[in-house]
Amino acid sequence: MTYKEVANKYLEDYGLSIGDTILINKKDITYEGILLDRAEGQEDGYLVLKLSSGYNIGVAIDNTTAKLIEKGEKPKIGYEKSEIPHDPTKENISIISTGGTVSSVIDYKTGAVHPKFTAFDLVKANPELLDYANYNVKALYNILSENMHPKYWVEASKEIANDISDGCDGVVIAHGTDTMHYTSAALSFMIKTPVPIVITGAQRSSDRPSSDANINLINSVIAAKSDIAEVSVCMHGSLNDSYTYLHKGTKVRKMHTSRRDTFRSINAEPVAKIQNRELKINPDYNYIKRGTQNLQLNTNIEDKVGLIKSFPGISEEYIEYHIDNGYKGIVIEGTGLGHVPNNLIDSFKRAKNENIPIVMTSQCIYGRVNMNVYSTGREILDSGVISGLDMTPETAYVKLCWALGQSDDREEVNKIMHKNMAGEISDKTSIKCFLN
């Protein structure tokens, strides 16, 4: 029998199920607690208990006996379905959930966070949203953001376009924060929109008292009702709940693992600030206004693109591996102004000869790539590497995926990468953006 089969038989023999309060004896030691579900991917052959102290422990079932103290119920996650009120005097906003912490709940019996909230649950958990709009809610998928994939960008784009075609006044997407800036860039290239598309998330799950989801969601709805007909990210601008910033979808990046104000505009200033439920647009920002462009959707994309970070001692094998394994393009996170060790240059030349575009960005994040300053940079340029200008590595990666979906010709891809498609390239990079 497998460990899992042994564990299941153990529970069956003692008449135990998840949620029961049980007593386990092992080598003269007694443990009493609530029987919990094991996390996915963890080893079988043991039981997990929630002790009265609040801590969880794992007990191997070998040489143990168990006793049922009290029957319990397996925790249920989510809300019972009911109708969301409709007010004909309010705008109609589409809320699409993809998962992530903003669409997660914490199971207080287990202490685990589950991406189980749907868009419907988000409205139920944040009833103040009903003061601002009517909602068409749907769960596109329920994944943590590390599991995001380019094919999901395509699905999300099509779903958003359908909602816009059906007449919604704006779209809010609930998304995990770790890869939110990849998705915001992808949607920026794939969709030209007549209404606002706002992506938001949370650093703490929606049902926790310390959650940042409520203000992020409400302010995202406010942004979705605004005149800013672009793809943007709405997240906390401070550690408290005082205000949020609206960031351009191609100019934003997650900059801290856990802070509420983790998202920052890179080589740009925020599009707007939302404070006390009032949206104030940056007067220096020239935005696309609601209704001035028709809906256009272009979801052609190539997902066989690599993203490589340069480091001291990096071998040409990193580049050769991607060429040999059929990658259609590569983005390099170079050092400083866009540099890599010169031992990579022959591999860059090979990529050029095989029609594989390589785009250079900087791991400095802020600033602009300029490979004309130093001799190594000029050699890199001569080998056919394309400058990523002041795009972040993540935006350059997404744009290269999209560009290769438009053409497999390296020279045409070069032109696309240097054309400002969705505000991803600044005419000049201001020091003010870094200092702020």
Automatic annotation (TrEMBL):
- Show the SMART domains listed in the entry: Asparaginase
Query: What species does this protein belong to?
Result: Methanobrevibacter oralis
List the catalytic activities from the record. Answer: L-glutamyl-tRNA(Gln) + L-glutamine + ATP + H2O = L-glutaminyl-tRNA(Gln) + L-glutamate + ADP + phosphate + H(+)
Q: What Gene3D superfamilies does this protein's entry cite?
A: 2.30.30.520, 3.40.50.40, L-asparaginase, N-terminal domain (3.40.50.1170)
Q: Where is the Asparaginase/glutaminase C-terminal domain?
A: 304-417
Q: How does it assemble?
A: Heterodimer of GatD and GatE.
Q: Gene encoding it?
A: ansA
Q: What is this protein called?
A: Glutamyl-tRNA(Gln) amidotransferase subunit D
Q: Which family does it belong to?
A: Belongs to the asparaginase 1 family. GatD subfamily.
